[in-house]
Amino acid sequence: MIEDKNQQRTSLGNLGEFGLIEHLTKDIEIKQPGTLTGIGDDAAVLDFKDKKVVVSTDLLVEGVHFDLAYMPLKHLGYKAVVVNVSDICAMNAKPTQITVSIAVSNRFPVEALDELYDGIKLAARVYGVDIVGGDTTSSQKGMILSITALGEANAEDVAYRNGAGDTDLLVVTGDIGASYMGLKVLEREKQVFEVNPQNQPDLDAYSYLIERQLKPEARADVRELLAGLEIKPTSMIDISDGLSSEIIHLAKASGVGCNLYEEKIPVDPQLINTCEEFNIDITTVAINGGEDYELLFTIKMEDFEKIKHNPNFTIIGHMTQESEGIHLITRANTKIPLKSRGWNALSENE
Ligand code: ADP
Ligand code: MG
User: Fold this and answer.
1) Is the pTM of this model over 0.85?
2) Is residue 6 part of a domain?
3) Rounded to 5 degrees, what are φ and ψ at 200?
4) Same domain? 174 vs 141
5) Cα–Cα nearest to 113, from 215, 12, 40
6) Measured from the CA of 102, which atom of ligand 1 is nearest?
7) Any idea what the CATH number is for the domain that residue 51 is in?
8) How far is the CA of 86 from the centre of ligand 1 (A)?
């Protein structure tokens, strides 16, 4: 799995900081009309006209948030952009610009950073965001990557976490849980590889799961899908930590309760098969596994007809009065309190 296709190693010292910035950013193009000045001055200059500006930032640390043993650098760059774009989409806003900051030790050659930037630039193209700045510095050990994303929306379109009403329907896009199982598969293959490097893994049966883990996509299409259906989400969040934890965020912020129905949770057939193989409960994975980057939102009950047959969306529950609490209603019709057991980077190693 650890590929060595590119043997050429140009030391970072050869280029120096400014040479490296020039090397990484020289072919970056500006597409957004709102980007007046991008890379090259002390700050970017942006024009959002009469729109509201939405900003989100993320910090990724090698060994904590990613493991380069099974995360190729190009995928890391792509995913780092996606994660931030997803946060903008979760405000029901349109992503427009990003900045990229990196700290790297001299163990990384220039070619490695090229790969990272190939992924970053690809994602920027796919999501139509301009790379308008960043910072480049050295680290004692490992890689640190921070991306900030900006987006725009009309004031009345912005969806906050705290807008859910106590009779609203709870809706999720796509399917969930796959990314977490993709990671489990990769971790298992890494162990096999460490025991016997000759062992070439056959990962066909897990291709969807692995893709969801290594190359997730943000639901940048949902804003327009909902606008087309004339639905304004009353609250919205993206699924980074896990369905259960995101539901709790929405419900707590909105001062409401929630019933989530186990039988409604959308999962991919590959997830079902792999959970059986690993002897893991599918619902546990679907509600606690993170990093799916699907959107979770609430809509008014009267919008039910507009959404019920749409293949992009699944109604998985409804909000309730706060006093009723937050529950999973199982297939056997028992009521279990939902717990937030999402991926918490700080508590995971406790
Ligand atoms: P400053 O000294 O003001 O921090 P820099 O020399 O770090 O400026 O950066 C020069 C220009 O290059 C700025 O526009 C900055 O935003 C941009 N830049 C620096 N590093 C990166 C990077 N890793 N990716 C994209 N743009 C970068
Ligand atoms: Mg700088």
Assistant:
1) yes
2) no
3) -90, 115
4) no
5) 12
6) 23
7) 3.30.1330.10
8) 24
